[in-house]
Amino acid sequence: MMGFIFLAFALLAFVIWLIAPVLFGRQIANFDSNEQLNINIARERLADLETQLSNAEIDQSQYDLIKNEIESSLLDDTDENKTTHLNPELPAQYKRIVFILLTIIPFSAFGLYQYWGSPDAINMASTNRTDQASSDAANPHADQNKHAAGLDEAIVKLEARLKQDPNNPDGWYMLARSYSVQKQYAKSVDAYRKLYALVGEQPAVMLGLADTLTMSRNGDISGEPFELAKRALKLEPTNTTALWLAGIGYQDAGDIPKALELWKLLLSLLGDDPRSSQEVKTLISNAERQLNSTPGQASANTAIPSDQAAETKLSPTEINPSEIKPAKLTVKVQIDTSLRSTVSDTDYVMIYAQRVSGMKMPLAIVKAQVKDMPTTVTLDDSLSIGPMGKLSDAKEVNVLARISQSGQAIKQSGDIEAKTGPYPVSHADPIEIIIKQPAQ
Question: Could you tell me the pTM of the whole model?
Fold first, then answer.
C-alpha cells in the first residue's frame, strides 16, 4: 500500500514538472508576440516613410523627424517588454488553477484507489466468482432446476385460474400438457378427461388422453388408449399422431400388417422431419422382421372375425400417399396505415392458425414484430407448439394475426387481432390479412 502511494506521488511530481512550464509560459508567449508585432509595425512605417521621401512627398527634415519618433517609440516598447521578461508575473487566475490542480490530483488519486483499487474489493469479487463457479460445478443442473421451478409456479397459477374458470378448454389443455412434461401422468389424465368432457370428440384431445393413459400404464396401449387412437384416426385419417399410436396398438394386438400399413402412410407424411422419419423406419423394420419370422402366426392374427372387420376397417387403407397434399399455409400480413402510427416497432405480431371449433390453441405459430411488417410467412407442422396440436391434425383452420405487447400465444387484454377463414390446411393460394384499428 505504501509503495503504491509513493509511486503515485512520484508520478504526480513528474506530471506537474511537465505541465508547469506550459502554464507559466502562456503569458510569456503572449509578451513575445506583442514585441514582435511592434517591430513589424515599425518596419512598415519606416518603409512608408522611405517611399514618401523618394516620391518628394516630404523633405529630408520631415523624414528625419518622423524617423526619430518611430525609433524612439519602438525603443520604449522594447524596454517595457524586457522589464516584463525579467520580472514575469503570472495572472492571478492562472495561479489559482495551478494550486487547485496541485491539491486535487493527489487526493483524487488516493480516493479513487480506495474506491476502485482496494485489494479487499478485488479479493471479495474474486471470492464471489469462485464461490459462484464452485456452486455451478456442484450443481450442473441449475438451469434445469430454475426451469422446473418456473413451470411449477406456472402450474400453480393455472390451477388457481381453472378453479375460477373451469370451462376454459385452453387452460385445461395447457395444464394437461404441463403435467405430462413433469411426468405427472395421472394428473395429466385427469386434466385431459375434463378437457374431453368440455370439447368432445376432438382428435388432439383424444390422442393426448390416449398418450398419457399409455404412459401412466408403463407403455401399455391396450384397451381405452387404443380405442381412442382408432376413433381419432377415423376422424382425421392423416393425423400423424393417430397413425403412430394406432400402429403401436395394432402391433401390440398382433396385427402386424395393419401396423405396417399405418406406419408406411405415416412415413410418407413426415416430409422434412429426419428424426421422426428415422424412428418410423425403425418401427417398420422391426415389424417386418417380426412378420417374416413368424409367417404362420402373422396369418392367423390377420384373420379377424367378420364382426370386428367393419370396426377395424379404417379409411387410411383407401388413401394414396401421393395424392396427399402437405398441411401448409402461406400468409401475407400487413398493418393498416391508420393503425401503424399508434403501435410500437417492438410490439409483437403473432401469426397463427387455429381450429375452427373447439380448443383455440395455435396449431402453428410465427412470432414477428411490427417493424417487420409487411411480411409473408409459411405455417406448417414444424411451427407447432406441441406434439398434440399440429396443423396436419385439422381439416380446416382459421388464420389470425395479432399485435401483442406481451408476445404470448394466448390472446391478452389490449391485443389487436385480425381473423380470416376457414381454410383447408392445404390451401394453396396466399392468405392475406390486414390488421386494422378496432371499431370503437
Answer: 0.52
Supply 35's cell numbers. 514585441
Q: Which amino acid is at 256?
A: I
C-alpha dihedral (176, 178, 184, 187), degrees to nearest 10: -30
Supply angle C-alpha 5, 20, 80, rounded to 5: 160
H or E stretch covering 135: helix 119-138
Q: Average of pLDDT values for 96-104?
A: 63
Distances (CA, A) of 257 to 57, 223, 317, 433: 133, 20, 11, 46
What's the start-to-end Cα distance of the chain, in Å?
A: 72
Structure-block grid coordinates of residue 58? 516630404
Identify which of 211, 213, 219, 215 has the alpha carbon closest to the alpha carbon of residue 240. Answer: 211
- Candidates 192, 170, 199; CA nearest to 412 is 170
- Kindly report the number of other CB atoms within 10 A of residue 311's CB atom: 11
pLDDT at 309: 39
Gyration radius of the chain over CA positions: 45
